[in-house]
Design a protein that fits this description.
The longest helix is centred in the first third of the chain and has 29 residues. Helix 2 packs parallel to helix 4. The protein has a domain of 101 residues. The protein is mainly α. The chain is flat, with a radius of gyration of 36 Å.
Length: 160
């Protein structure tokens, strides 16, 4: 018979809380510093870029998603980009002071219009599955109803 020799499992020593806390604080401070410095540089260096980002955010809230680097490629200056984005917002229906309420209404309207367009396109492609009658009820039901009415009318004439 063969015999398997297993080595005993080595137990890990638990880390002391002081060492773990010191390491974690150093890592946190490094990441916070890098985050602060990059965001502060962007905000302080160019307020026009900040406005561009805000306008793009409003367009996204209105349900307009674009590849911004392609959309704004034709604009040479940040002022031209801002003007273009404001024009896009106006075309979407966001005029005056921007608000989430307006953005939600615009987004809902755009989604409804898209759904309606998809249904109409499907209708054109496949045709209407159920023909819609032009006036009220279908003829078969109408004829059945008239038959019952004539029977009632005939019995009321006999009793008078």
């Amino acid at each position: 018979m063969s015999e398997v020799l297993d080595e005993p499992v080595k137990k890990r020593q638990p880390k002391t809380k002081a060492k773990a806390a010191a390491k974690g604080d150093q890592a946190k401070s490094r990441t916070e510093d890098s985050r602060k410095s990059s965001s502060d540089k962007t905000a302080e260096s160019d307020p026009l870029q900040l406005e561009i980002k805000q306008l793009q955010g409003w367009l996204v809230k209105c349900g307009i998603r674009k590849l911004w680097h392609r959309e704004l490629a034709s604009c040479e200056s940040p002022q031209a980009k801002i003007k273009h984005l404001k024009r896009m917002l106006a075309d979407a229906g966001m005029e005056g002071q921007y608000s989430l309420e307006k953005a939600r209404r615009i987004k809902a309207k755009r989604e409804l219009d898209d759904d309606l367009a998809a249904v109409q396109e499907c209708d054109k492609k496949w045709g209407c599955a159920v023909p819609v009658p032009e006036k009220g009820a279908p003829r078969r039901q109408l004829a059945k109803g008239l038959g019952e009415l004539s029977a009632l009318a005939g019995s009321s004439d006999e009793s008078s």
